[in-house]
């Protein structure tokens, strides 16, 4: 009995996963294109800015404008100083001598006498007084005591201009604990206090 | 075009950009013939003198306390216990309402003040804190007039509308909420939201109404854009930056609208620049102000509307000219070179004359700079009754007579002129 010949060939390679198709790197390419476009636009803006600098005024011109503006504006948060002529010094000296022992003359409003007004015995009083003589209304202590002379600066029908008006420093609006409302100051038409 | 060619073009374009930036820097340097200090001193200006009692704290407003009242009986409920687990429960028993039900006071988180804004008219202030509330204060009496509970507690900014009828706020919810102060409260006693402005893809860091326009609001965002909104419809009118060219390349942290020309506003960003925008044309930015070496946390226009100030993480404030882009002055304190903790500038404001620059810092200092001579003339942080924590925000009243500061110590303080007008003698 004849047997069939068996042809032995090489075994086929084992199955292997297929490699992904060779798609072009669109994400990286697209991103690069966008970035190049952005950079080109940036180049345009920078060239425009460089051109705009031609004929531009120097920094000193701008500084001059700042100085001029700042010097021309009143400011309620900055101490205002008034100059007094030297010829008044003699009168100040004389005044100081005369009122040395007159304790009811106030000190802190510009009057040369440095004594505090003794009437106000408020323990909150600190570098503050109200002068009946010069009616400077310079009290700032914020004392809630009704008897405190400070109250004179915040009474109804206060005639003083408030901090908004740079020519004075009533202090009523922010210093007075009794302050509840605003009215227009009859003198300078800025807000003032009235309780 | 192949990827290789694109890469070459990218490199070449980058080199061109860097070259142009360098030329710009040199050209500006050539125009830098002086600064504000140099000019002022050459014209005899000296620093103003402010004594320790010239600016005083005359009001302290505390209301952002994060207190919650819970009925004792409810504390035993599992969901309530879960909510307040780990929180500090006070032993006090307080009478809560007309029915005399006993409640426990929980004060369990520090409600830092993050933002404040003065009303343009009348002396009111709105403040925002991450206790989830906006509070409207009468600044003169320190009384609260409104306490608005927010849906999202993570508020970062607030603003008063021009005619003081509404307030706006925004934060980590990426939206800006508008509340009408005259609205009837709901049954929980809260003022309802009258409008919510959605569209930002990142947190809302700052917002400001356009002066004299109740329906126009500008916001800045962590999504690198600023947006001009129509509040009445809730729609975005314009977007500044983002996908459009010449916008910020990092989070935008602050905005300031020019009160002299309300079509212009400036923004400050984590990309260390400030940019000027024209609301009539959203793109590109009109001008970019370089100089800072860190995030620009605060921007504010100078009172004349022609200059702007900035405050940054690099610890400095700077003054720029709006039109030319020149950096006019740097305001910085000397620090030890070994000191890595230079306090950052969180907020700035100019006095109405522009002579004073108020700058709040992360260490609780609040410097008052004389802008002409770049000297610190006062530090509100060292005065009596000063804040005990970081100054997070500050602002000047519309008439320039008072400064309000807000802090992480949970309080707001008002500072006003406490001195008196001195008489000095002249020599002639």
UniProtKB/TrEMBL annotation, chain A:
Keywords: Coiled coil. Residues 29-56 form a coiled coil. Residues 32-91 form the G protein gamma domain. This is Guanine nucleotide-binding protein subunit gamma 3. The gene is LOC105056722. It comes from Elaeis guineensis var. tenera. The keyword Coiled coil applies.
Automatic annotation (TrEMBL), chain B:
Keywords: Repeat, Transducer, WD repeat. The keyword Transcription regulation does not apply. PROSITE patterns: WD_REPEATS_1, WD_REPEATS_2, WD_REPEATS_REGION. SUPFAM superfamilies: WD40 repeat-like. InterPro entries: G-protein_beta_1-5 (IPR016346), WD40/YVTN_repeat-like_dom_sf (IPR015943), WD40_G-protein_beta-like (IPR001632), WD40_PAC1 (IPR020472), WD40_repeat_CS (IPR019775), WD40_repeat_dom_sf (IPR036322), WD40_rpt (IPR001680). SMART domains: WD40. Gene3D superfamilies: YVTN repeat-like/Quinoprotein amine dehydrogenase. CDD domains: WD40 (cd00200). GO terms for biological process: signal transduction. GO terms for cellular component: plasma membrane. PANTHER family: GUANINE NUCLEOTIDE-BINDING PROTEIN BETA G PROTEIN BETA. Belongs to the WD repeat G protein beta family. This is Guanine nucleotide-binding protein subunit beta. It comes from Elaeis guineensis var. tenera (Oil palm).
